[in-house]
Structure formats: C-alpha cells, structure tokens
C-alpha cells in the first residue's frame, strides 16, 4: 500500500492529540470548500440516473462533450492499465505514485523520467503519463509540448495520459481536455481538489468515445452515487463561486509562500493549492510539525515536505508553529555545524 496524505485519525492517535486540535495540511485539498446544499431525499432513496443534468453541467464547465463521470480520477488510474496489452510506460520520477504502482501491478514495464528526459524517451515508450501541474513539484507543462508528444505517440497507437487533478486553480489554458476526443489522448480531472470536495469521490475522464464506452462498461452501473452527482452538478455550475475562489486561492497561496520563506529561508515549489519545501531534515521537520498538531506530507523520497493551505482561522496558529519548528531546526543545524567545525 502506498502512503498518501490525510490519515488524520492515525496521526491523532500516534501523537495523542485530539483530531479537532489539528491543522491538516497533508492533502492539497482546498480548505475553503464549495458550500454544501441541502440534499434532496431522492438522492438517498433512488438509484443514480445518468440524465440528471450532471453531464450537461460538466460539458459546460470543461467546454467539451467527450467525458465520463467517475468516482474520482483514482478509479480510472486503477483501471487504465488493464485496458492495454503489456506496454512500456513512462511516469514521473517524482509524482503521484499511484500511476507507477497501478501500471506495475498490472504487469507493464514502467520507467521513470525527469522532465528534461522527455524528448529523449518519447519515441521509446508506448504510454507517457504527465501530471500537469505535477504533484508535488508543481511543474507545469505547456500545451504545445503535450500536443506534440501526443502526436508522436499516436503514430504507433500509444497513449498520452494527462492527470490534471490540480489544474483548476492554475493556468487552465495549458489544459488539453478539449482535445481528448482524439485517439490516444486521455485526460483526468478531479472535483475534490479545487472544489474542496474530496469526500464525495467525484471526477471525470476525457477520451475518445470508444475508450469511454470501454471504461464505462468496466466500471459497471452507478459508479458515482446520486449524492455525489447532485453536489458535483451544482458545484460545476456555480461560476460566481469559481471566480471568487480562484482569487482567494491565489492570495492564500502567496501568503503560505511568504510564511515558508520567512521561517525556512527557502523559496518553495508547488501550486496554488500546495507548497513543497525541499529540506535536508525533512523527516525531522514533519515530526516537529506533527508534535505541534500540524500534519504535513513527508515526500516519498524523504527529501522534502508538502504543505496544503490552512483554513482562514488557522493562520495565526500556523505561524506560531512555523516559528517554533524552524527555531528548533536552525538550533540543531547550528549545533551540528559547531560540532563538525
């Protein structure tokens, strides 16, 4: 099993701190979630129906008709490796680890790449997976490059899979979701991140119709609950909230950026929904933050931590914890320097 963000209950037990006292920065999910409505009784008492208006709302939001509603992009990440014969698959060396895990698990030949390697390997693989923007580094790939890589893969029936889970809060002009009706291009989008609704497990996959039909058949009926469909439809249709939230996230992101720079002395990478701080003492940082009831995400390579945005009422407490944690880290570093001098 892979390690993911969240698991707040587990951290609360480990550090013996009540759940309600924690600041959870471990997931990169928008803390200012779309305001939940009253849910009609029908959502609980009737089976989900495909003609409930969700697809129309999604087509308008994403500006394309070639899509399928799924229970979060994770559902498709797990399924796609089973829809191809054994292939050579390129995944980011540092990125959302479920991609590599699921393709390996299905028996494919997985290779890892750095962004600078892409031009060299594009003609040697059958499937290329791009996370745009990347998680946790925040690297953003330009649309024209994605189009060129797709065209190269398409000449030999290859796939370009673009995971755009965090793109809603970024520069959406780099998205290729409008081109996903063409063979060999598959785009994944998440509702959980930007809308702050991870718990409803809602997302979309975009691809040519034949592949969408195959995915739908594989997932079976009612893959998305009626409650999730209802909430997703309303959230995607709320243009005023979306525009307002884009500004709020940009401001909050800048505030977190400044906080990290002030106390760590380093400029973090990341997106408007999370910041990633590379640090030689990342494990100790994660431990110190947890001891102060702040849950951060220790990167899989143990070389950095990722921090999401706090709720509006948590900034003052978070700054106090930052000052305490980095005072401790800096003191330790100074002692180590004197000892080795």
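-> sequence recovered:
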């Amino acid at each position: 099993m892979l390690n993911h963000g969240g698991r707040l209950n587990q951290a609360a037990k480990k550090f013996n701190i009540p759940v309600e006292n924690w600041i959870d920065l471990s997931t990169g999910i928008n803390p200012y979630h779309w305001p939940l409505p009253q849910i009609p009784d029908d959502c609980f008492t009737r089976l989900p129906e495909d003609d409930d208006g969700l697809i129309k709302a999604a087509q308008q939001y994403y500006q394309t008709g070639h899509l399928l509603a799924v229970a979060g992009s994770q559902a498709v990440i797990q399924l796609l490796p089973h829809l191809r014969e054994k292939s050579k698959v390129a995944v980011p060396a540092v990125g959302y680890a479920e991609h590599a895990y699921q393709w390996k698990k299905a028996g494919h030949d997985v290779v890892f790449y750095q962004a600078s390697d892409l031009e060299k390997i594009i003609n040697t693989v059958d499937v290329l997976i791009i996370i745009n923007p990347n998680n946790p580094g925040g690297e953003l790939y330009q649309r024209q490059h994605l189009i060129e890589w797709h065209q190269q893969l398409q000449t030999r029936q290859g796939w370009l899979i673009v995971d755009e889970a965090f793109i809603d809060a970024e520069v959406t002009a780099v998205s290729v979701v409008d081109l996903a009706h063409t063979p060999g291009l598959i785009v994944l989008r998440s509702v959980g991140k930007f809308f702050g609704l991870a718990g409803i497990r809602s997302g979309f996959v975009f691809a040519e119709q034949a592949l969408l039909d195959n995915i739908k058949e594989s997932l079976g009926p009612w893959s998305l609950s009626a409650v999730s469909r209802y909430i997703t439809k309303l959230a995607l249709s709320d243009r005023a909230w979306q525009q307002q939230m884009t500004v709020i996230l940009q401001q909050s992101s800048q505030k977190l950026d400044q906080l990290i720079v002030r106390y760590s002395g380093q400029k973090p990478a990341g997106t408007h929904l999370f910041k990633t701080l590379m640090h030689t003492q990342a494990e100790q940082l994660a431990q110190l933050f947890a001891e102060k009831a702040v849950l951060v995400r220790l990167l899989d390579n143990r070389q950095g931590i990722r921090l999401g945005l706090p709720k509006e009422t948590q900034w003052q407490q978070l700054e106090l914890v930052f000052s305490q944690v980095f005072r401790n880290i800096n003191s330790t570093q100074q002692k180590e320097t004197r000892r080795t001098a």
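The longest helix spans residues 239-264.
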